[in-house]
Design a protein that fits this description.
Blueprint lengths: L1 H20 L10 H15 L18 H12 L3 H27 L6 H5 L2 H8 L7 H17 L3 H17 L4 H14 L1 H6 L1 H25 L10 H9 L26 H11 L2 H12 L6 H24 L12 H15 L3 H28 L11 H11 L7 E4 L7 H10 L11 E6 L7 E4 L7
Parallel strand pairs: 1-2
Antiparallel strand pairs: 2-3
Length: 465
């Protein structure tokens, strides 16, 4: 038992990382992803850097930095699955090293980091070829820099934080919820140092503002031109309050609606039971809030608690006050604000036998469900949802089949929730460079059934003779 307590984290870490890298092609590739890759390909073909990023839901074009990242990766290889793996490895290395640093700095146990690695949302988003997903590692890097500045104020931490803030802001506007509490706590708790060093600090901020000026002007001009999805105020507030469920399987029906309809791997009743068991992170989260704000907590923990409380509070205000519909990816820049309190709560409850059982149940349920989900997605080649759809590996197979026919062949795609699959299939077909070997007046692409993401490419329509 003593050996497991000392080495259990490292023993569990290896298999969990292998699980992350299993079936690398089983990732979404729809809507924004093909558009982002196409933008990067076009910029590379033109021999220039992309000038702007994707169009956001509020009518604002985000910065091009994420596209630049994909341009660099596409210059190395045009294998999209390999690009996903490279990006995932870099992200995992950043997250893991940063959290281990924070565990040491804050004198917190390492094992709750496993909850982060087993989060279905983090697992899914880290693998996606999207722009928003860069927020997951970059946000925790910013918080680690803030923690280091609180511990030992230095100009280099100001420069590093400014660079990360500029990058985060260009990727997604929701990072304002992350940046504002950090700025407020740092300015208050290190006000003497900042006043003493105001000239270099102001110069650094001015450079960051100047670099962001064109983007900020564009944001102000375009903001609000697109329609936004809204929910009832109560529903939005409830979902935001339970933001800790980002680390459970409660809201995975958003990405995997077919999980509860299939008996593959785990029966639906067992899946539902394990999902609620993983939701024990929610009461642990509230315990963590209570424990983190106690005066007996170490100074660094309490300072970080105020930052994270600000993140959680602004998240509630944004979704509850404005009744903005809650989607899991909205937490990609704020996830640590919720996880920090889970971390504090888990560290406290494991002092007691019942807490150890509850913590073990959370990790075990997350591991079982994530494994079952990966097997389910792999067997069904995705699912019919607006958040996941047909997997990239299966779309590549379809594009390979399509490459046997001339590019002028008319392609009909059966109506369904993933009509945008036409964009990705045509992009993947365009990336195939070989001569056609077959011909047909038309081709038909349709789903094999109503649950899975498996699609069929045929020369006749479904049901046709």
């Amino acid at each position: 038992m003593k050996f497991f307590a000392q080495h259990g984290f490292w023993l569990a870490l290896g298999p969990i990382l292998v699980l992350h890298l299993l079936f690398p092609g089983d990732i979404p590739f729809l809507c924004d992803e093909p558009q982002l890759i196409d933008n990067a390909l076009q910029a590379n073909a033109a021999g220039t850097l992309a000038e702007r990023g994707l169009l956001g839901t509020v009518g604002v074009h985000y910065g091009p930095q994420a596209t630049w990242g994909y341009q660099a990766l596409l210059a190395i290889t045009d294998n999209l699955i390999a690009i996903s793996v490279i990006k995932q490895l870099i992200s995992l290395a950043l997250i893991l090293s940063t959290l281990l640093f924070m565990a040491q700095r804050l004198a917190l146990p390492r094992w709750p980091i496993l909850i982060v690695l087993l989060s279905p949302q983090i697992h899914t988003y880290l693998r996606q070829l999207w722009d928003n997903v860069f927020l997951i590692p970059l946000s925790v890097v910013l918080l680690a820099l803030a923690l280091q500045f609180l511990h030992q104020p230095r100009r280099r931490w100001i420069v590093a934080m400014t660079a990360v803030v500029v990058l985060l802001g260009h990727i997604h506007l929701m990072t304002g919820i992350l940046i504002l509490p950090i700025a407020c706590v740092l300015c208050w708790q290190r006000r003497d140092w900042l006043l003493k060093n105001w000239r270099p600090t102001a110069a650094t901020q001015a450079i960051g503002l100047a670099l962001s000026a064109p983007y900020l002007v564009g944001v102000c001009q375009a903001f609000g031109q697109a329609s936004q999805a809204h929910a009832s105020r109560l529903d939005a507030l409830l979902h935001a309050t339970c933001g800790a469920s980002y680390f459970s399987f409660l809201y995975t029906t958003h990405s995997f609606p077919s999980l509860g309809k299939s008996h593959f791997v785990l029966a639906p009743t067992l899946t539902a039971s394990l999902s609620w068991l993983s939701a024990l992170v929610i009461p642990i989260f509230f315990i963590g809030i209570f424990r983190a704000l106690r005066s007996s907590q170490p100074d660094l923990q309490r300072s970080l608690a105020w930052i994270c409380l600000g993140i959680v509070g602004l998240t509630l205000l944004f979704h509850g006050g404005g009744a903005h519909i809650f989607l899991p990816h909205y937490l990609n820049g704020q996830w640590f604000g919720f996880f920090f309190f889970i971390w504090i709560g888990a560290a406290w409850i494991t002092k007691y036998r019942l807490g150890q059982i509850a913590s073990g149940a959370v990790v075990a349920s997350l591991l079982l469900l994530l494994t079952a989900t990966k097997l389910h997605v792999h067997a069904n080649q995705g699912n019919q949802s607006l958040a996941f759809g047909t997997t990239l590996s299966h779309q590549l197979e379809l594009a390979d089949q399509l490459a046997d026919y001339p590019r002028s062949t008319q392609l009909f795609i059966a109506p369904g929730p993933m009509g945008t699959c036409a964009v990705s299939i045509r992009l993947l077909r365009a990336m195939q460079d070989r001569e056609p070997t077959q011909s047909a007046p038309a081709l038909y692409l349709y789903y094999q059934n109503t649950i899975s993401g498996t699609m069929v490419l045929a020369e006749k329509p479904p049901g046709g003779n």
